[in-house]
Amino acid sequence: MNINQIKQVLTIAEEKNFTNAAKKLFISQPSLSKSIKLLEEELGVELFERSPIKLTHAGEAFVSKAKRIMADIGELEIEMSDISNQSKTYIVIGIPSHRCYCFMPKILKELHKDFPNCYIKIEEYPTFILKKMLAEDKIDFYLGTENPDSLIYKAEHICNETVFAAYPKSWNIEFKEDEIDIRKFKECNFITFPEQLALSQYLKTLCEENGFEPKSIIECHNAETIYSMIDEGLGASFLPELFIKYFPQKDNVCIKKIKGYTFKREFAIFYKKDKYLVKPAVKFLELFKNIT
């Protein structure tokens, strides 16, 4: 058994198709099939059921261990490269798009002053996807508010934030000073985040606690798009405090605190406790401590 065969098994398990896996691995399908057959003969077990392609019990055990092996090899390569002071390093950062707008330009500008050869890849997806990517070692850092397993991941606190109500000025809703009663929205249309996201759950819970179900007419995972739709008068929504702080204000949108809503959630950087951090990654964490 060798590293190439381990990569081949993992690729087939991901693609669930020998032909697609072969293309991804840049080898012929017959060569891939032969390699897997030789590996199965060496191990004395079948790793895949062929029609349709799916992992056997032995295959599932193999893949579970193989993922850890490949992660360790990747960590080893990174650490050795860092020790040898090679100029090229890279970091993969997972962050929701509206938070990326708030923080990343300033952070990366400072980071590249000290590490001009560090390659940065930014993955902008909803929180539930980023948490999965972190678990699968597809990103080095996840920036968000939903804390993964504290036994596996370390959290570097950035700040605490609340959420605000945002609605079209054309609605002419009465409010007291800088707060608004959520019950004012009982008959109004809402633009909501997908139900997998915490903001969607906050909105639903708060409305239910005040005696009504939010009337959602549009669902969207992008805060910038939701903000623009509010500006067009389509509905109201909840938006994160940091988004409100950094995103340019729109003339046709009212932003108000929610009366009686005092909950704050932690915004942090999460990464695996046992992960080796290259020097640019350590600097990245340091820069975030003074960003807000």
Can you walk through the features of this model?
- This protein is an alpha/beta fold.
- It contains 10 helices and 13 strands.
- Strands 4-3-5-13-6 form a 5-stranded mixed β-sheet, with helices on both faces. It has a 4-stranded mixed β-sheet with strand order 8-12-7-11. A two-stranded antiparallel ribbon has the order 1-2.
CATH topology of the largest domain: the name is: D-Maltodextrin-Binding Protein, domain 2
Q: What is the total domain count?
A: 3
Q: Could you say what the CATH architecture of the largest domain is?
A: 3-Layer(aba) Sandwich
The CATH class of the largest domain, by name, is Alpha Beta
Low-confidence blocks of residues: none
List how many beta strands DSSP finds: 13
In a nutshell, what does this entry contain?
This protein is α/β, with parallel strands linked by helices. Helix content is 43%, strand content 22%. The chain has a 5-stranded mixed sheet, with helices on both faces. The protein has a 4-stranded mixed sheet with strand order 8-12-7-11. Strands 1-2 form a two-stranded antiparallel sheet.
Summarize the topology.
Elements: H1 3-15, H2 18-25, H3 29-43, E1 48-49, E2 54-55, H4 57-83, E3 89-94, H5 97-114, E4 118-123, H6 127-135, E5 141-144, E6 153-161, E7 163-168, E8 179-180, E9 189-192, H7 198-209, E10 215-219, H8 223-231, E11 237-240, H9 241-246, E12 253-258, E13 265-272, H10 279-288
Parallel strand pairs: 3-4, 3-5, 8-12, 9-10
Antiparallel strand pairs: 1-2, 5-13, 6-13, 7-11, 7-12
Helix pairs in contact: 1-2, 1-4, 2-3, 5-10
